[in-house]
Automatic annotation (TrEMBL):
Name recorded for this polypeptide: RND superfamily drug efflux protein
Transmembrane regions: 298-315, 322-345, 351-377, 398-418, 424-447, 485-502, 640-660, 667-688, 694-716, 737-757, 769-792
Family listed: Belongs to the resistance-nodulation-cell division (RND) (TC 2.A.6) family. MmpL subfamily.
Lineage: Archaea, Thermoproteota, Thermoprotei, Sulfolobales, Sulfolobaceae
Signal peptide region: none
Domain Membrane transport protein MMPL: 272-447, 642-801
Record bears the keyword Magnesium: no
SUPFAM superfamilies reported in the protein's UniProt record: Multidrug efflux transporter AcrB transmembrane domain (SSF82866)
Membrane topology: Multi-pass membrane protein
Subcellular location: Cell membrane
Organism: Metallosphaera cuprina (strain Ar-4)
Length: 808
């Protein structure tokens, strides 16, 4: 394609974040956190790297690759463990009770960590015992002189006030900072089996903490001091992050933090130049951009080739084919130029908005141009004195009316309260209007300057629009009118079945819909489940503590049972507290309780989305990346079906009612479009099972707009015909059916080209729209429409005046 088509991809937006609305609950949560808790959601994005090899070599490789990113910060496993261990113990003003609780809890964590380290290196513990109890007995101990001198200083000072055994214990503790030494003596310090058994079975932390701090742990602090520490031991820590979360077999997990507005090109370059699995929502968007760009080139090529083949089969003349393809390319250039100009004024081109442009423009532009050319050929064969002007008067008018009706249908998107629908609507309106100029002006001007002999090359005469399709159309129309009530019953049964399929199948927000399932970011996202994989949800519960305590308690308890870590007025990590007064200052402010819930699934994964959906279903205000994603999806879907689609129908009814001066025709047209759309979506669900959340919306939007074309062609031609109502219907559908079937084949071919993409949601849209257009073209228009119009008879045109050419 021309340079403009290639340049527009640089302006595509892949993230949903720019389309957040202030009315979304996740946005409301962000504002409450900022104003009442002084917490801002992070302005950085995490890039997760799973890399094979030794720790030092992995660290070197990642550091060498950071040059591709701006302001990147590497977090090693130890950095992350330290960060999360201190996350809730520093930087906040706490009550004295809270400070004591945190200090004691932190001391316990340090003691358990020390015990585990000594168990892993029992020789180190035996060395400490030999120094502590061997030196006072005059035994030779292999140790450096500085350590021995330090021990002796402590020992002789303590010996002034304590017995030899206690002086030894004090000196050992002060030298090695190891309180476990005090449980041994001169008679057993060399027994390694005893030492190991002691560490394995030790659980008397309350006594050890008393010896170190002089404070007893009262039962009312956490119910029972013993049960509190036992619960803590089971969880390893308040935030159970350990080295095992970052190291599996020969692989390591590192995290690189970059600004949330980091260039996707930089992220792609980083991924391409590091031999590791890279994932996270920013790499997912970056890979989506990469695959979209490559798919757009493939789609353009396949569309051009497929449409070209169809035109050769339908027209069998070179010049008309070149005219049609030229008008389509011109339409795409105009549409993308409009989007680039709008981008200069602040319009963000959502990548889906950009992707639907080529098939829409190819389809609509060639449809209108083909209608014009077919009518021109028909007038030439009739021997009209001025066939071009006659074709322009009839087909040109039909194209303009159809184009305006499509644009009007798309206008309902522009006044939608959904930001993402409004964005897509701008692209759809730009596309529909951009199709009119080349299909009317360019085609008309070109035909004026081309002689009939040139137009028919390599044939002697201009192509005959009539071919084998005429027999099919005649057969379908006659059977439709003859068995019109059976047709009506069939429509009803198929509609009910399609509605049942539509209502019983669910859509999804899987990342492998927008990037191939074999992509490294998807593989990495799946592998991340075996490592440190928490994503954070913020929950706000309005009301006083007394009012909300039970709800917060139950939510915390349930979330923890589902594998989450919950920090709230009633919980610390995996521990639900009976007495929460110690941490109220941190998680309660101005009538709001804050719950920070660490979900055990990567952000945007199915597990994270399902978990966040559960929180939302409890009637809670939920924020964070997962909640923002859900808000956008839920709001967009609800807005389309409750506002945009009904408004589209109203616009179509009013416009066509005014244009045709009829009530029945617009209602029948709308119902037939709804029937085709329902069947198309039902077939899509039947083929793919579950589909991307935007796929059904796009199918409805495109079919409810593009389908107007074919019906308008038929209705306007029927009004031109003479005879009884059934004769007019037969002649109008048959004559227009040739261009309708040709246009339908081309438009469906344009959308079927999307199936050449390796992105699942493009395949879904391409198949569903392509199939539905064929169904609408070869079943609904020649079979359903004649039956319904025949049943309505003269009431098709009520309350307007019937054509004066009708025979009574």
């Amino acid at each position: 394609m021309a340079p403009i088509v290639l340049q527009v991809q640089n302006f595509f937006v892949y993230s949903d974040s720019p389309f957040l609305s202030p009315q979304y609950k996740s946005v409301i949560v962000s504002e409450i956190m900022k104003t009442d808790f002084n917490i801002s959601q992070s302005s950085v994005s995490n890039i997760y790297i799973i890399i094979n090899g030794s720790y030092n070599e992995s660290l070197r490789i990642i550091n060498d690759s950071l040059k591709y990113l701006n302001e990147a910060r590497l977090l090693t496993p130890s950095d992350i463990i330290s960060l999360y261990q201190q996350l809730y113990f520093n930087g906040s003003e706490n009550s004295s009770i809270e400070k004591d609780l945190i200090k004691i809890n932190q001391l316990y964590l340090n003691l358990t960590s020390l015990r585990e380290r000594l168990l892993l290196n029992i020789s180190e513990f035996m060395f400490q015992l030999n120094v502590t109890y061997g030196l006072p007995l005059g035994k030779h101990v292999s140790a450096n002189s500085t350590l021995i001198e330090t021990f002796r200083v402590y020992y002789f000072i303590a010996l002034e006030n304590y017995s030899q055994i206690n002086a030894s214990r004090i000196a050992g503790y002060l030298t090695f900072k190891d309180p476990y030494l005090i449980f041994f003596g001169f008679n057993n310090y060399t027994n390694e089996t005893l030492a190991k058994h002691f560490l394995e079975k030790f659980d008397n932390y309350s006594y050890l903490i008393f010896l170190l701090t002089g404070k007893h742990i009262p039962d009312q602090t956490f119910g029972s001091s013993y049960s509190f520490f036992m619960r803590s031991e089971q969880n390893a820590s308040s935030f159970p992050v350990s080295l095992s979360n970052f190291h599996r077999n020969d692989s390591w997990l590192f995290i690189v933090q970059v600004p949330s507005n980091e260039s996707l090109n930089n992220v792609n370059e980083f991924i391409d130049n590091i031999k590791a699995e890279v994932t996270g929502h920013l790499p997912i968007y970056a890979r989506s951009e990469l695959y979209t760009e490559s798919n757009l080139k493939v789609i353009d090529l396949v569309t051009f080739t497929l449409v070209g083949i169809l035109l050769i089969l339908l027209l069998r003349s070179l010049v008309p084919i070149l005219l049609l393809l030229g008008s389509a390319i011109l339409g795409i250039e105009i549409a993308y130029s409009v989007l680039i100009v709008l981008h200069l004024f602040g319009y963000k081109i959502y990548y889906i908005s950009g992707l639907v442009i080529p098939p829409i423009i190819f389809g609509i532009t060639i449809d209108y141009s083909l209608l014009f050319i077919y009518r021109y050929f028909e007038e030439i064969r009739k021997g009209r004195q001025n066939p071009l002007n006659e074709a322009f008067r009839t087909a040109g008018k039909a194209a303009i009316f159809s184009g305006l009706s499509i644009t009007l249908a798309f206008l309902s998107f522009l006044i939608s309260p959904s930001p993402i629908l409004k964005n897509i609507g701008i692209a759809l309106v730009a596309g529909s209007l951009s199709s009119l100029f080349p299909s009317i002006s360019f085609t008309y001007t070109s035909l004026r300057s081309i002689g009939i002999n040139v137009l028919s090359f390599p044939q002697k005469h201009v192509p005959n629009p009539s071919d084998g399709r005429s027999k099919y159309l005649r057969f379908m129309i006659n059977h439709s009118i003859k068995r019109k009530y059976y047709v009506l019953l069939t429509i009803f049964v198929v509609s009910i079945f399609s509605l049942w399929v539509f209502s019983t199948h669910n859509s999804n927000v899987d990342v492998n819909e927008i990037v191939p399932s074999t992509s490294e970011v998807v593989v990495g996202l799946n592998d991340l489940n075996n490592y440190f994989n928490y994503s954070l949800d913020y929950v706000i519960v309005p009301g006083s503590l007394n009012q909300t305590h039970n709800m917060v308690y139950m939510i915390a308890k349930k979330a923890i049972s589902m594998g989450a870590l919950v920090y709230s007025p009633v919980s610390l990590g995996k521990i639900v507290l009976d007495n929460s007064s110690a941490i109220l200052n941190q998680f309660y402010s101005n009538g709001f309780s804050l719950m920070e819930i660490y979900i055990p699934y990567p952000v945007f994964s199915n597990g994270a989305i399902n978990f966040t959906n559960w929180l939302i279903s409890q009637g809670l205000l939920v924020g964070g990346s997962n909640a923002q994603r859900i808000d956008i999806v839920t709001n967009t879907v609800q807005t389309y079906y409750s506002f945009t689609l009904p408004l589209t129908i109203i616009f179509i009814l009013i416009y066509l009612g005014f244009l045709l001066k009829s009530i029945a025709v617009p209602v029948r047209l709308t119902l037939s479009l709804l029937f085709s759309s329902l069947v198309g979506v039902a077939v899509m669900y039947s083929v793919f099972g579950t589909v991307y959340w935007l796929s059904p919306l796009i199918v409805f939007a495109l079919l409810f707009s593009l389908g107007i074309d074919y019906d308008m062609f038929i209705v306007l031609r029927i009004r031109e015909e003479e005879g009884s109502e059934d004769e007019k219907i037969r002649n109008g559908v048959e004559k227009t059916g040739l261009v309708v079937t040709a246009a339908g084949l081309i438009l469906s071919g344009a959308f079927f080209s999307l199936m050449a993409a390796d992105m699942q949601f493009l395949r879904e849209i391409g198949f569903a729209v392509g199939f539905t257009i064929l169904f609408d073209t070869f079943i609904v228009r020649p079979f359903v429409v004649p039956a319904v119009m025949s049943i309505l008879g003269k009431y098709n045109w009520w309350p307007g005046v019937r054509s004066n050419r009708s025979k009574t």
